Amino acid sequence: MLRHFAHLSERLEGVARAADLPLDSVLELHLRVRAGGAKGGLLSRRATLRSRALSGSGGEKRLQLERSLPRPLGGEAAWILRESRPAVGFCSVEVTLPWLVSSVAGVNECGLAVVGGPMLWGRSDYSGHASSMLLVQECLHRSSDLEGAIDWCLKRPVEGEQSILLCDASGALATLFVTGTERRVQVGEGELHLEGGEVPTSDSDSDGVQDASPYSVEDRVLLDAKSGSLRIELGGAELEVAAR
């Protein structure tokens, strides 16, 4: 991670410093995510990913990406909305966890939208690479369109078991499938629906109240690549922000 993801490594140091924690303790959280399943916590919880075609003026192609946000169980950190303004690179708005240097979903000022799916059960024999989850933030930071983002994703040394949706302001859409250290790209357009991840082992939500469906699709984030905007629906409240 320190060698191949310099920007995110600096962010990792900043998170540790601000939280007054040893760097290794925050790094351990990121390494644990690679395994998926129970070790992945909220990042591995059951979730759905969708792409939808929106009506645009003059017949233009316009896509919306959506990801459900499973509710945290007791003791888990909750989702936050974050704005990134790097000194070098593209600005973006994102949904992530407080300790996570990457994001799970976001859109940048150029209209590139990226959504990372749950981290599934990974291999037991790790190759020593960073988590594929880092690709979400790398694309937002470095790429203005789908072609550049896919090219970058195929070159970075990562590992995991994950699907990542990407689209840009032109309406181009692709899915990146990560299996171990291997990657496969499927180009598509229009409607797409993916679902996966672990069902939580507890039936209580973060307030300790019984919930018949703690992994329901009530909370979600929606990304509009054309307008460069992000809308989050969390706990009954809605907020929309733009990366531009």
Task: Quickly list its features.
244 residues; alpha+beta; Penicillin V Acylase, Chain A; eight-stranded mixed sheet; six-stranded antiparallel sheet; 33% strand; globular
Word description of this protein:
- Mean pLDDT is 88; it is low at 203-217.
- It is globular, with a radius of gyration of 17 Å.
- Strands 3, 4, 5, 6, 7, 8, 9 and 10 form an 8-stranded mixed β-sheet that branches. It has a 6-stranded antiparallel β-sheet with strand order 11-1-2-12-13-14, with no helix packed on it.
- It is 20% helix and 33% strand.
- It is of the alpha+beta class.
- It has one domain (6-190, 216-242): Penicillin V Acylase, Chain A, CATH 3.60.60.10.
- The longest helix has 14 residues, at 6-19.
